[in-house]
Amino acid sequence: MGLTVTDLITEYGAYYKAGSQNVTRVLKQMMQPTVTENYMTLLKTDDTVYQLSQGKIADLIQPFQKAFTAKGGMTFTPNKIELNHIKVDDSLYPDDIEATWLGFLSSSDLTRKDWPIVRYIIEQYYLPKIKDNLELKEIFKGIYAAPGAGVAGATGTSMDGIGKKITDGLADGTINFANLGVVTTANIFDKVELFIDHISEVYQGVEMNVFMSKSWEKAYLRDKRSQAYYNIGSDAQIANRIDFTPQSVVGLPSMNGSDVFFATPKDNMLYVQKKDLNKYRFNIEESKREVYFMTDWYEGVGFGINEIVWAYDPTVSVASSSGI
User: Fold this and answer.
1) CB count, 10 Å around CB of 286?
2) Which pLDDT value is given to residue 322?
């Protein structure tokens, strides 16, 4: 979308005067680094659909008799995670900054794509912003929408995120709904313990995290402190541990603004990627003094087995709950 330096020119003038300015004086707001993918199982593939199958076996044991009485049977059902094709396209005229306060990032080189401004923007803005967009708008909150022809699609519509997969799984009954009633900042400590009780006893001894927004995590810790179960000097890992279980509360930036809680073993929460290194490198082209930035890759998220995902969503009807 180009370089906008209108205000800079208004304030400092449409010229460059060598002085003490340098990149340390170009300030920027913090962008959100990657967090959620660190709690997922990363899978690499060359396919655009990652195909899985879930096997189930019926009960086998029966009372003895001499006659052969077959009992059991295997059922295999398909499961797939679709990878979405994601891209970054942008362009700019490096000449726009030459006669401005930012002129120290220009060059006398006739090849504009080699000017310092190009590398500076990639390293300091594009790469961090890609991580920021994925974490805050795609990996949990994303809902895929096909782009209009010739029109840049909205950020947050590049893929179906974890939240969409949970919504779909609760709707079709394949993901377990934890009926917690109304959760507030005053009762969240007790509600998280109730959430754990909804997990199948077969899995209650499995280490996993109860994921929620950062604000709900903070509310949980404050409620736990108010009940004198730990003091402010406690180790963070102890503070987040749910008592008498191997489970812990983890707040994710990707879930900010969401009231959903969910838990599943790490090896069941999958992040499938193809050409993922392209997120950190660009094809740079130049035409008639304009520099173009392009990259693309594939990724998708999902669960290997929906039946070992437990979720609380206050928008789900209590009538559809499956609990302890």
Assistant:
1) 16
2) 47
212-263 pLDDT, tens digit per residue, is 999 999 999 999 988 876 665 566 667 889 989 999 999 999 999 999 999 9
Asked if CATH classification 3.40.250.10 holds for the domain at 162-270+304-320, the reply, yes or no, is no
Looking at the chain, which residues constitute the CATH 3.30.2320.10 domain(s)?
Answer: 162-270+304-320
User: Up-side HSE of residue 188: CA atoms within 13 Å toward CB?
Assistant: 24
| Non-local CB neighbours of 47 within 8 Å, separated by 6+ positions | 83, 274
Measured between alpha carbons, how far is 294 from 285 in angstroms, rounded to an integer? 8
Instruction: Find, among 101, 74, 95, the residue nearest to 3 by Cα.
Output: 95
pLDDT in tens, 226-238: 887 666 556 666 7
Task: Give how far Cα 193 sits from Cα of 46, 163, 169, 240, Å.
Answer: 41, 22, 23, 12
Distance CA 205, CA 190 (A): 19
Structure confidence at residue 225 (pLDDT) = 87
Structure tokens at 96: 């726009």
262: β partners:
211, 311
Place of tokens 């805050």: 136
Q: Which residues contact 202 (CB under 8 A, 6 or more apart)?
A: none
Rg (Cα) of the chain, in Å, rounded?
26
Residue with tokens 């362009």: 91
The average pLDDT across 7-23 equals 78
Decide: 53 and 79 in contact? Cβ < 8 Å.
yes
Distances 222 to 51, 125, 188, 218, 314 between C-alpha atoms, Å: 42, 35, 9, 6, 21
Phi and psi, residue 65, nearest 5°: -150, 155
Q: Say yes or no to pLDDT of 286 above 60.
A: yes
How far out from the chain centre does Cα 15 lie?
Answer: 43
